[in-house]
Amino acid sequence: MRIIVRATEDQRQEWLSKPASQNTEVIFTGCTTDEFNKIEGDIFFDLMIDETKNVFIRTDKPVFINAVTHTLNELPPNCIRINAWEGFLRRKI
Prior knowledge:
Layout: E1 2-6, H1 9-16, E2 25-29, H2 33-36, E3 43-46, E4 63-66, E5 79-82
Parallel strand pairs: 1-2, 1-3, 3-4, 4-5
């Protein structure tokens, strides 16, 4: 499985602090949304979403996005909305 994560350096370090499956390749990028939409992968995480702009074009794969102001009605059906505030991976829950 290839997971693509658009994240800040702090978010990347936080993600890497957790154990991962040996069969999973995780690719981190800080690219623009347009570039992010062109990368090949199986699952996508966009932790850097700009709440004031259009979200995401990709509709062919599951996309987890950090979108607390967008409603699910505003997103494509393949999007899963998460609240990925700073430190969310360090939480026990």
